Amino acid sequence: MALGFPKATMTPLAAGGLPPYGEDMNGILAMLSIAARASEAGLLRPFSANFANAIGGYPRGATVAHPSAQGRFLICVLDGNTNDPGNSMAGWVDPLAGFLPVSNPAVQGTLTTGYINAPNNGGQTMNLSYGPGLGMHAAFQGDGRLVIYNGSQPFFILSPDTLVFNGQQFVTASDLAAERGRAQAAEASLLPATNPAVQGTLTTGYINAPNNGGQTMNLSYGPGLAYRVALQNDGNLVLYNGDRPFLTVSPTILAFNGQPVVTVSALSAETARAQAAESALLPVSNPAVQGTLTTGYINAPDNGNTALNVAYGPGLGSRAAFQSDGNLVLYNGGQPFLTASPKALTFNGQDVVTSGGQGPKKTYNFDVQASHGQQIDFPEPFSGDAVSVVPVAQDTGNNRIHIAAWFQKNRNGFQISINVWTGSTWANETAQVPVTISVTGPA
Fold first, then answer.
1. What are the phi and psi torsion angles at 239 (to 5°)?
2. Out of 185, 208, 290, 367, which could bridge 297 as a Cys pair, Cβ 3.0 to 4.6 Å?
């Protein structure tokens, strides 16, 4: 059978030929049937060195059974490959390498249950990386805590007993209620209802100063108890920052930082008094007055071509100059400290409002991964919606040219538009591509 049907079997018997054996034909057909049946049944054959040598090596694309992992296979990626994958994986690839098999000790039950156990029965930390560039990760620690990191900096810690966010520990409403009850019980024991400083029971909320109001009662508060309220025996209430009083209240006066505070009615009365005095001192016929005093208009001299100065302040040491160039300049002595014009406002030499009435600006330059129609948030919001956005999408090769613009924008962010050249037309980019963004807006 190894010779097949040699020339003798094709020579007539009269010429000395030999008839073929039926056993050879049946053997050949049996071998072909076995091979065909194995292929139809899905049998994957192992690597055979004898077969590889006989055919000059496995061709690219051939498959053989994995030498050690049951149910897996290898794909040949090299023509004429005679390497035994049990000894060398050269020219072979395992398409399932890197996947998590159902029998892996980190999986509880089957993969479809969705449960994954941390290594060493929870005795070791399991980390889950996520976010842009995988810069964030959640650590399920061996001590039972969940810690979330931004880079290497933890910002959220959760355990059965504690919740910490950015270094601040939080408590529940029930914890707060329990502490309030404890504190009230402690206060009740320290300040009994019969204390001479208490009028009636504690529930009335009234506390008398000592000696029937004849002595000052102080209440300290604030960081380090640096602030104090003094309810004085002269009837004044005085607030202190350290030893410095900054607010005084009595039935007749309210003073803040040493300055009396007046009511709106008192200010209105003074305005009426001053206007009456000014009418007597500045007659209607004065050339600096346009119309009557009741119109409230005063013209600078020479039809506005000469500056009009108004002196004010202690010893008249301050001055407002309404200049012929249209600027208003305020002076302290001979030193200007504020200049106002229709286009600019300068305070102590610093521009407060720029030309065109626009305030100070700030600019952010940053990179993101984005696709068409995605909402992009700015690193920090601007103070107004008048922002200028310039997105530039990176070309990703293979003649994939990108054009980026924006749909809608406001102080918080914008919706990006990214189109890609497909080789024949422009289309919306659905894949994430690198985008560099420059945005300028009101600070």
1. -100, 135
2. 290
Torsions phi, psi for 15 (to 5 deg): -95, 10
Q: Tens digit of pLDDT for each residue in 395-415?
A: 877 667 899 999 899 999 999
Q: Please, what's the b/e burial string for 361-400 (b: 16 or more CB within 10 A of its CB; e: otherwise)?
A: eeeeeeebebbbebebebeeebeeeebebebebeeeeeee
Report d(CA 78, CA 56) in Å as an integer: 12
Q: Going by C-beta distance under 8 Å and a sequence separation of 6 or more, which residues neighbour residue 252?
A: none
Compute the C-alpha angle 393/395/400, nearest 5°. Answer: 120
Q: Radius of gyration of the chain from Cα atoms?
A: 46
Which tokens sit at 334? 């001979």
State pLDDT tens for residues 81-128: 999 999 999 999 998 876 655 455 544 444 445 567 777 777 888 888
61: alpha, beta or left? (left if phi > 0; alpha if psi -120 to 50): left
The pairing of strands 136-140 and 413-421 is unpaired
Question: What is the DSSP-derived secondary structure letter of residue 24?
Answer: H
CB 382 within 8 A of CB 411: yes
Residue found under tokens 């897996």 = 72
Conformational region of residue 38, where left means phi above 0, alpha means psi within -120 to 50, and beta covers everything else: alpha
**Residue numbers in the chain where pLDDT is lower than 50:** 102, 106-112, 198-204, 289, 291-293, 295, 353-357
Range 361-442: architecture per CATH: Sandwich (2.60)
Tell me which amino acid residue 309 is. N
The dihedral region occupied by 91, where left means phi > 0, alpha psi between -120 and 50, and beta the remainder, is: left
Give the distance from CA 140 to its chain's centroid. 23
